[in-house]
Write a structure and sequence with these properties.
Strand content of chain A: 15-25%
Oligomer: homodimer
CATH superfamily of the largest domain in chain A: Response regulator
CATH class of the largest domain in chain A: Alpha Beta
Order of helices and strands of chain A: HHHHEHEHEHEEHEHEHEHEHEHEE
Number of helices of chain A: 13
């Protein structure tokens, strides 16, 4: 092997005025970089004899800087939305030279505390977390922040801690979905969700309510139900359909619930979307497996993960002040399919 | 929350003019500190509401015993089956006091090599991996084994490396599924899968073939297709249904493909399962979202992950010899739902 001191990705990034992550992505032909930019970077790399010597490269890195580990706490790995967020975190972290330590809280406060503890022992440079459903004390997060370990929350926001966060625009997602239902002629739109307990449920409810008000309709208590899973949706939908004025549309806070409504309505003989329109929220595997395919609000977990990793790494590297509370909102996207007109 | 700035051991040391080590020892009642000094320090700590900082304490502990980290390589985190395996690995590892470092190969050999390298630098005690689809050289795994780092493969087995492995019983899963189709009256059973490239596909094909042979039927080349995703299944199913003797049943190597067959048949006016029976393989979220719900072979990812973590930790701790090649098979389970009679 000829051992010419070769140009590094860092050199290329500096010379072309882009980030190292961009160079790395371009060289891997990532579709996230425009074709022109990719070509420019690849040409420059070629012209400067850039050769990605995998082993040498990482050995070099490891001598210069200690291994940087980000701790990630996931409530449940088998949940599609969370695993897509983890995928986004991993993508961004590995592009920027970080590694991930991953643990599940299993929706359990005690486990969450232990994980924070364990991550701290492992000298993680920061933590990305979505809190467990039953977490109401926040000392474990406060302690990390006090010791200068940045914490970034995603999805579920911990209102008791003033730290950076990434959420999807639940309010606008719901607003857009309900507006679409109204625009396609629906006049009695039911809401299935968890209105009170979680921030997410509240924001989606508010989006629903405001879309109605904006179009001169009023939320009807009879059409607002506390329901966030398929089994419950299948159980209560026959009841709501027997009202004097039954709904002609449903907006559900997740796809699982929407699919419960869908099959419940079909069993009762209603046609979807001719008689009843349905819109969900998530856009996971289920949404395209049901018939008709589900109109839904895409939550874009990968983007949420990427943003969270970006904030954290920027704080670790000083591109953002460590004590800066960065709040980012990932925009949702309404995917119109067969369950709405 | 009252946020009194709490006193640290450092503060106590400074205030009393002793070293931090002395304070720490005194608070632990170490006989290396005189009784008088101990009492003085403890009294001061009490009076100033000193509460032992858990994180600092465990940092100290971590010096005593090194943190044990398992490296996990996942081809794609957003794939349901892989995230359920990761969940099982995490569950078992955390119960046994290990932490996980997780990375995605994104089905890319070069990334896989880099990750092995990175894990190795991070001093992982072992690696659990499902190889990337395009991996055909195995030096990176061999190197780890040579350095005494145990490697356990899951799902996709690397035939080029003699290491421990956990797979599901693909052969028996397929055999049971096809036997069920035969038992319910099907006589022309098509197979959609990848027969040649991957071990998994081969085993599932063999199970299909042997179930036919066992029941006095012969595999028919016209009914065996190379197809492992929904789009392709929707594209080729009208063609196979136009054969002189079309199939009356389909066995597909995954749920996604099975759902493509299902909707393709329904669009052509066939009733499922009255005219056509369909069986998939996976049992993910999709399988219960389609209509009718899918009969499928459950792959039990969580169990695969748990077994893999168990083997690795047993090898690390010496309960299994490090050079022992342990092969475990997780049994599949046929879940009969609405797409078969």
């Amino acid at each position: 092997m000829v051992d010419t001191p070769s140009i590094t990705m860092k050199d290329i990034a500096r010379d072309l005025g882009v980030s190292v992550a961009t160079v790395s992505r371009a060289l891997k032909d990532s579709p996230r970089i425009s074709v022109e930019k990719r070509e420019e970077i690849k040409r420059y790399a070629r012209e400067h004899y850039f050769s990605p010597n995998i082993i040498a490269e990482s050995l070099r890195k490891s001598k210069v800087q200690p291994i940087k580990i980000i701790g990630v706490i996931i409530p449940q790995l088998s949940h599609f939305y969370f695993s897509s967020i983890l995928s986004g975190i991993e993508e961004e972290a590995s592009a920027r030279g970080y590694r991930l330590m991953v643990a599940q809280s299993r929706e359990n406060y005690e486990d969450e505390v232990k994980i924070c503890q364990a991550f701290s022992e492992s000298k993680v440079c920061g933590i990305i977390v979505s809190q467990a459903k039953n977490t109401t004390k926040y000392d474990h997060f406060q302690r990390l922040l006090k010791h200068g370990v940045p914490v970034v929350f995603y999805d579920r926001i911990c209102t008791g801690v003033n730290a950076s966060r990434v959420v999807v625009d639940d309010y606008m997602g719901a607003y857009a979905a309900v507006t679409h239902l109204i625009d396609t002629g629906c006049r009695h739109i039911a809401f299935y969700g968890t209105t009170l307990t979680m921030e997410i449920g509240k924001n989606r409810y508010n989006g629903y309510r405001d879309a109605l008000l904006k179009h001169g309709m009023r939320p009807d208590d009879l059409l607002i139900r506390n329901c966030d899973n398929r089994a419950d949706a299948e159980a209560i939908t026959p009841d709501i359909m027997s009202l004097a004025t039954p709904p002609d549309a449903f907006f559900a806070v997740n796809d699982d619930t929407a699919i419960g409504i869908l099959y419940s309505c079909k069993r009762m003989g209603y046609r979807v979307p001719e008689d009843i329109s349905i819109c969900g929220f998530t856009n996971g595997e289920r949404a395209v497996a049901c018939e008709p395919m589900l109109t839904t609000v895409e939550q874009r977990g990968t983007q949420v993960g990427e943003e969270a990793a970006n904030i954290l790494i920027d704080q670790v590297e000083g591109a953002l002040p460590k004590d800066r509370v960065e709040k980012r909102v990932v925009r949702t996207r309404l995917i119109i399919r067969g369950t709405t007109k």
